[in-house]
Amino acid sequence: MVTARTPAVFIHGLWLHAQSWNNWIELFRATGYEPIAPSWPGIPATVEQARAHPESIGGYSITDAADHYAGIIHSLASKPIVIGHSFGGLLAQILLGRGLASAAIAIDAAPIKGVLPLPFSSLRVAFVALKSPANAKRAVSLTANEFRYGFGNAVSAEESAELYRRWTIPAPGRPLFQAAFANFNPHAASKVDTVNATRGPLLLIAGERDHTVPPVITRATLKQYRKSPAVTELKEIPGRGHSLTIDSGWRGVADTALAWLRKHAL
After folding, report:
1. What's the pLDDT score for residue 248?
2. What sequence ranges are listed for the domain AB hydrolase-1 (predicted)?
3. Could you say which of 2, 155, 167, 218 is the most buried, measured as most Cβ atoms within 10 Å of its Cβ?
């Protein structure tokens, strides 16, 4: 009798292509899961194509992305585990709150509505888009120096430059505006059903040295779930920045995720 593999859906964040999950896909497949890593709506199939056609990427919202991934999940044979990084971590929480995932792992996740801390380093990264209202309708790219500050600050300059060359693409600016003003909007796109008592388990992972999503944001996210009896846990990984899913230490983060899934028999 063949046992069906548990689906695992990987969701990238802003400025990284879905192909940046390739190592994770191979590991999870070897571990017995059926992993996929679809891109956000509008993003071409390769890094090179995405860089060549930024006009196809701009304008998409958090809700557009969440509904896009919900449609993908509905096509699967069973509820998946959803694993997201940065804004992908925010989307993973939205999908879990909707009851579409059996569990979720949110790695250095962008803040959900209700999270109040706004560290200077986060503002500095977001200002790449927020400095011009026109960026809400178009795609925005990072320079190598901006990537070094926002993603690669915990790795060598050489590794940061290589990660930038290999994985970065333009990203829609609109989600950054939506997240920045979420707490002033009662219908914010980044709102998550944090009181859902029937949802699956959630693991929040924070990189200790992350400039884009410092641990104070992840700890504040954990507090938003305090009224739900569902499993919500936090793991802070020492010495890691926002590139923790793609840099040379990715395997330690992936092993942390796999150990948590095994603990919960997922």
Report:
1. 98
2. 9-255
3. 218
- What local confidence, expressed as pLDDT, does residue 254 receive? 98
For residues 51 and 55, what is the distance between their CA atoms, to the nearest angstrom?
A: 10
Task: Please say if the pLDDT value at position 2 is more than 80.
Answer: no
First-to-final CA distance of the chain: 20
Domains annotated on the chain, with CATH: 6-263 (3.40.50.1820)
Q: Is the separation of the CB atoms in 167 and 19 below 8 Å?
A: yes
- Residue 45 phi/psi, 5-degree rounding, is -75, -25
* Calpha distance 73→103 (Å, rounded): 13
For the residues 201-209, what does the mean pLDDT come to?
A: 98
Which among 175, 10, 202 has a CA at the least distance from the CA of 98? 202
CB 229 within 8 A of CB 196: no
Buried b / exposed e along 180-189 (16+ C-beta atoms within 10 A): bebeeeeebb
d(CA 91, CA 71): 13
Question: Which residues fall within 8 angstroms of residue 59, CB to CB, at 6 or more apart?
Answer: 42, 137, 138, 172, 174
Query: What's the distance, CA 148 to chain centroid?
Result: 18
Confidence of residue 3 (pLDDT cuts 50, 70, 90): low
Closest CA to 82 of 252, 246, 200, 255: 200
Question: How far is it, in rounded angstroms, from Cα 266 to Cα 250?
Answer: 21
